[in-house]
């Protein structure tokens, strides 16, 4: 569902053969797959071992303890690594991305600061996140997670990137220079209510809510929150706007 966001960023930065891209919080690797298909050499880091294994499967990589893929002959190299990059590993990239809208700002700041210090001057860094809540239908459904998780002291499902200047403040705080931005429509669509509930829970944004209550309660309340977005044929559609910021080292 975030393909329009990823495609817009790759188009805007002219990603293609010869591009060396490093992705922070690469998740299951969809953005890396799109960049690799354009001929870019890509490296993805994530702290979640299970998500990296899914990325390996998606990118056709071979399992290994280092999460380094063995590229096919004549194909651009694809590397997946567990953890966060060290300063020495940040050199030589044309583009660094942090496109996971759910990544908390506190988790991104250290890595972005390291990029600002170690990456090549002038190289691009792209951050992405949710647009304004009034432009994101899914925000009303995600509030269920915050409400149910409140007994555990959760801060809410949209901890960052929903304010007008949040991306700029995150970049500036890391020592990066903002250099352009964009908004992209990313509707969330599901064939039915059950698929929508499964898909939303799979984002991980409801984990604290499930821990504070139980899965059955969370599923029930998500289903109720989805009623306004159910169409006559039973499908679910939630229109959202996502935002990205281009910054420079």
Portion of residues in beta strands equals 15-25%
Main sheet overview: 7 strands, mixed
Q: Which word captures the global form?
A: globular
Tell me how many strands there are: 9
So, CATH architecture?
Answer: 3-Layer(aba) Sandwich
What is the fold-level CATH name, i.e. the topology? Rossmann fold
Radius of gyration: 18 Å
Mean pLDDT: 88
Order of helices and strands: HEHEHEEHEHHEEHHHEE
Poorly predicted segments:
62-73, 153-161
State the fourth-level CATH superfamily: Vaccinia Virus protein VP39
**Main sheet: strand order:** 3-2-1-4-5-9-6
Structural class category = alpha/beta
Number of helical runs? 9
Protein name: SAM-dependent methyltransferase
Organism: Actinacidiphila epipremni
Keywords: Methyltransferase, Transferase
GO molecular function, one term: methyltransferase activity
